[in-house]
Amino acid sequence: QVQLVESGGGLVQAGGSLRLSCLASGRTFSIYAMGWFRQAPGKERESVASISWSGGNSYYVDSVKGRFTISRDNAKDTVYLQMNSLKPEDTAVYYCRLSDYWGQGTQVTVSA
């Protein structure tokens, strides 16, 4: 059984930073690409960033390029999302994904 547990969300002022973590268990973490998604109220879930199994390749949605950085530590079975220069429009529940599995989400709220 795969479990993904996100942490690191919270309330921050615009311009601030947060680092999200997602700890995976139940699979050989290091062979899977990982992704971060977010869902704001009334909106569809969208892909924010993803990273290859080795960490050598990453993808970002245009709205976060230059502000967010995805990384992973395969020794710790953890993927991270460093979020800098946060904007109110980044407010959402953030989820990590491994294959068909999702975490429970962590709330990020950015105040103006």
Describe it for me?
With 112 residues, the chain is mainly beta. The radius of gyration is 13 Å and the shape is globular. A hairpin with a 4-residue loop joins strand 7 and strand 8 (78-83). The strands form two sheets. Strands 2, 4, 5, 6, 9, 10 and 11 form a seven-stranded mixed beta sheet that branches. A four-stranded antiparallel beta sheet has the order 1-3-8-7, with no helix packed on it. It has no helices and eleven strands. The chain has strands at 3-7, 10-13, 18-25, 34-39, 46-51, 58-60, 68-73, 78-83, 92-98, 101-102, 106-111.
Task: Describe the structure using short key phrases.
11 strands, mainly beta, 4-stranded antiparallel β-sheet, 7-stranded mixed β-sheet, 112 residues
**Beta-strand content:** over 45%
Low-confidence stretches: none
Kindly state the number of beta strands. 11
Shape: globular
Mean pLDDT: 96
Question: What order do the SSEs take from the amino end to the carboxyl end, as H and E?
Answer: EEEEEEEEEEE
Radius of gyration: 13 Å
Count of DSSP H/I helices: 0
N-C termini distance? 40 Å
Helix and strand content put the structural class at: mainly beta
Biggest beta sheet attributes: 7 strands, mixed
Please estimate the helix content.
Answer: under 10%
